[in-house]
């Protein structure tokens, strides 16, 4: 490995992850998933991917292909909290673009998403905003996921309340919507 980039997950930890998955079906995918999970900022940093490539003897290009193919892999640092707004047809029809626009109260968010970025993270790394093509819950549109909890029929008032709660550090239980 000849990278000079910072590695976000200790190589000892990556070695442990590799050892515990050796020879198992889907080894590469699981290793990548667990390394991302071990990263404080929940993303696959270039140095970690290079280390995995060397250790598993898998071309780095293949690791990047996997990381970009599956939407649950992140190539950029993620915020402590994640808000995912569905942009599928049913949710769009029921106003999900408006919900996304509501989140433009986060400085830089609208510009980033409008310019084609798939996600936006606030500078303080507290909140990441992402979009998804469909949650498969179209009858409940518009649908938003907050820290993996799905909320249905979300209104502007509610998403702004969710955002405020996250910014104030309130727990998920306090975010429950009707
Ligand atoms: S379009 Fe949003 S859940 Fe299907």
Notable traits:
single chain; 178 residues; alpha+beta; Glutaredoxin; 5-stranded mixed beta sheet; elongated; binds FE2/S2 (inorganic) cluster
What do these coordinates show?
Helices cover 42% and strands 12% of the residues. It is an alpha+beta fold and 178 residues long. Strands 2-3-1-4-5 form a 5-stranded mixed beta sheet. A hairpin with a 2-residue loop joins strand 4 and strand 5. Helix 1 (11-21) crosses helix 3 (46-56) and helix 2 (27-38) packs antiparallel against helix 3. The longest helix is centred in the first third of the chain and has 12 residues, at 27-38. It is elongated, with a radius of gyration of 18 Å. The termini are far apart.
What is the mean predicted local confidence, pLDDT?
91
Please tell me what the overall shape is. Answer: elongated
Detail the poorly predicted runs. Answer: none
Radius of gyration: 18 Å
How many individual helices? 8
**First-residue to last-residue Cα separation:** 52 Å
Instruction: Please identify which CATH superfamily of the largest domain we are dealing with.
Output: Glutaredoxin
**Small molecules in complex:** FE2/S2 (inorganic) cluster
Number of strands: 5
Element string (H = helix, E = strand): HHHHEHHHEEEEH
CATH class of the largest domain: Alpha Beta
